[in-house]
């Protein structure tokens, strides 16, 4: 099974070119709703009373950080809706970014379900490879450090594998929200069977754009 990445990108460009409003309007709205809101929340510490104690400041920042993460997850789901409707030529507007709030509970449960599954498998992987690492560490420091390095790489590979396994969950939930978050997670795991490497190569082909995005964000 092979994905024609060039053809897929060509189709994506054609679909995006037909959007009304234009894709860059939606992109600016998305940036304002995510990066802009994040920047505003980062200013909260500046408006707190000067006599506020450190625990009060830390708890306030923690609360707003958690709230921002939940809000961003819902907005990202709205972007998935826009992408799905754009591909189907349904002429989605900027308001599609807000549609995720109508099913915010399901979106957050889906995100939580994916996070728990990835975390659980990573913890099992850590427990499985910690034994050999400690064994080599006890034998020789260099061998122990080498074993730790390879174990770290193995955990990264496992995390990427699991992320690819559940990559379709947001789109499946957007397609059938009434089926619930669990159904989207299980369907993603089934549909991605045999396609993870292809999706990894597709995503990696955008590494240049990701680097530019990282530099601009920094």
Task: Indicate the topology.
Layout: H1 5-17, H2 23-42, H3 44-47, H4 54-87, H5 104-139, H6 141-165, H7 169-175, H8 181-191, H9 196-204, H10 207-217
Helix pairs in contact: 2-4, 4-5, 4-7, 5-6, 5-8, 7-8
Please describe what this structure looks like:
This protein is mainly alpha-helical. Helix content is 78%, strand content 0%. The radius of gyration is 21 Å and the shape is globular. The two termini are 38 Å apart.
Q: Uncertain segments of ≥5 residues (pLDDT<50)?
A: none
What fraction, in percent, of the residue positions are helical?
Answer: over 70%
Query: What form results from the Cα inertia axes?
Result: globular
The ordered H/E elements are HHHHHHHHHH
Give the biggest sheet: none
| Structural class estimated from helices and strands | mainly alpha
| Terminal residue distance | 38 Å
Overall residue-averaged pLDDT value:
87
Specify Rg, calculated over alpha carbons.
21 Å
Amount of beta strand? under 5%
Total count of helical runs of at least 4 residues = 10
Quantity of strands, as a count: 0
């Amino acid at each position: 099974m092979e994905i024609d990445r060039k053809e897929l990108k060509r189709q994506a460009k054609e679909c995006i070119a037909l959007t009304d409003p234009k894709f860059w309007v939606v992109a600016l709205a998305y940036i304002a709703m995510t990066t802009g809101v994040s920047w505003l929340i980062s200013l909260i510490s500046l408006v707190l009373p000067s006599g506020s104690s450190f625990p009060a400041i830390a708890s306030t920042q923690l609360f707003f950080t958690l709230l921002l993460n939940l809000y961003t997850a819902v907005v990202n789901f709205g972007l998935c809706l826009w992408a799905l409707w754009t591909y189907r030529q349904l002429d989605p507007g900027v308001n599609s970014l807000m549609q995720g709030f109508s099913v915010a509970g399901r979106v957050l449960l889906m995100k939580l379900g994916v996070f728990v599954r990835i975390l659980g498998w990573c913890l099992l992987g850590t427990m499985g490879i910690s034994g050999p690492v400690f064994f080599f560490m006890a034998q020789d420091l260099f061998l122990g450090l080498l074993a730790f390095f390879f174990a770290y790489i193995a955990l990264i590979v496992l995390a990427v594998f699991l992320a690819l396994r559940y990559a379709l969950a947001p789109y499946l939930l957007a397609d059938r929200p009434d089926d619930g978050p669990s159904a989207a997670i299980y369907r993603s795991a089934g549909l991605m069977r045999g396609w993870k490497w292809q999706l990894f190569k597709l995503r990696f082909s955008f590494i240049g754009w990701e680097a530019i995005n990282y530099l601009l964000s920094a």
